[in-house]
């Protein structure tokens, strides 16, 4: 019962920290509107199988994430916006956090489970992904949930059918492809072998669950193939098998394998600092060389006697890390399924150190409280005009940085001040009361509360102010007014998009905010309408189009560059 009450309290805390702020920041990168516009297309066209967007382009990912956005947007009156687009990721993160607590609390201790869940939830990588309109958080939650469920099935001596694991793998595959099934089965397979399960029993059983998990995705793939034909099949092969075998027709996030180490260390901030700080106080001299280091036989023997949940966490972290070292394409978000299992070990480390030298962990809490206080001090300094614009120099991004600072300085309103005051209030509470009352069971939750206060201040006030400066939502509104549908459709031309080998560039933000109205001028060659084009591309290609009989009349000039170019809208006829 105590675990259940704590789980409900954790759920309330996670919801409070995530949901109120999802819609405050406008889309300001290409990734979020690229996914959101697919859901927009689903509701606009009624095609839930293979909707097209950006003028006829197929989505690069399976549709489960977009289905979620579309379904949640239906509850919002059919309107796709920033909040509904990010909500599936937030729900996935919250659900995974609570599941992580319950999973480890029941198998280790409530203190360890709560610490692991809070550490995972407050890592920079997971927290950022939970507030983004990208497929990665939903895939992560489905993958981790499948691993938890397969482990629970193994605890029952592999009896029965793990329907929840099969459902989670189906969701993962429908979110980003077969990797949603492959990784949970790999983790479970290695774990079972290390626990002494017969190879053929483990392989054949997991193969059966994998095949069952592919039934629903296969139904969608068949339906999508009937709509998209060979073009769809080629896209599936390249995005899945081509990406894993490094045979894609274009380079995508190509990095060497050490990149994964760097992103894991960076993504685990602020807890990376906690680990580094407590490493200096570990009693290294009391450790002795393990006999497991002497032979493979001894190693397997240790694996069989190790607590099952510890072995699972070790295997899961190792398998996921090695798996994503294989392809050339590497991104920090690929490693996110590792985070709950790494957080489990970080939680055990901090609790272990707290029992022996809690002052080392409290110092980390002091650092977090100092950051929380400094955040507020910097805000007041900006608010009072004590930070000169000259601080940003005259570089490439100087004007944007000055605008960001001005946006922070202009923050106002009752709720804004409420969110701003969370971080200094947490710092005061830490030093005034919490710090000296913490023990090994409460130290990690106490520090997590300070970190959560920082996130609340960032998400509720500072971050939206900064990111909205980068957004082109205001420009999209002006373009929408300058290009009425009654006078023709709007088209785009981007050299890097039309002639790219894959993953073409589009005006994703503009297209989302004008209602997915934009199509490809180069492919369509329309008789009349409006054309959005950068000045560099215009100088190179408009003369060619004029030779084809087109005439162009300037209609709108963007006040800021779009995709790195000064850009204009022309009205054209042929």
Topology summary:
Blueprint: H1 2-18, H2 31-45, H3 64-74, H4 82-107, H5 110-122, H6 124-130, H7 136-155, H8 163-176, H9 179-194, H10 199-213, H11 215-244, H12 258-267, H13 271-279, H14 296-305, H15 308-323, H16 339-383, H17 398-409, H18 414-437, H19 443-470, H20 473-482, E1 490-493, H21 495-498, H22 508-513, E2 518-520, H23 521-524, E3 528-534, H24 535-547, E4 551-557, E5 567-573
Parallel strand pairs: 1-2, 1-3
Antiparallel strand pairs: 3-5, 4-5
What is the SS-derived class?
mainly alpha
**Rg over C-alpha atoms, rounded to the nearest angstrom:** 26 Å
Mean pLDDT: 91
The domain tally reads 3
Strand content: under 5%
How widely separated are the two ends? Answer: 73 Å
So what's the overall shape? Answer: globular
- How are helices and strands ordered from N to C? HHHHHHHHHHHHHHHHHHHHEHHEHEHEE
- Residue share in helix: 55-70%
Number of helices: 24
Largest sheet: 5 strands, mixed
Strand order of the largest sheet: 2-1-3-5-4
Low-pLDDT stretches: none
Structure characterization notes:
With 574 residues, the chain is mainly alpha-helical. The protein folds into three domains: 2-276 and 290-352, no CATH class; 358-471, no CATH class; 475-573, no CATH class. It has 24 helices and five strands. Strands 2-1-3-5-4 form a five-stranded mixed β-sheet, sandwiched between helices. α4 (82-107) runs antiparallel to α5 (110-122), α5 packs parallel to α19 (443-470) and α13 (271-279) crosses α16. The radius of gyration is 26 Å and the shape is globular.
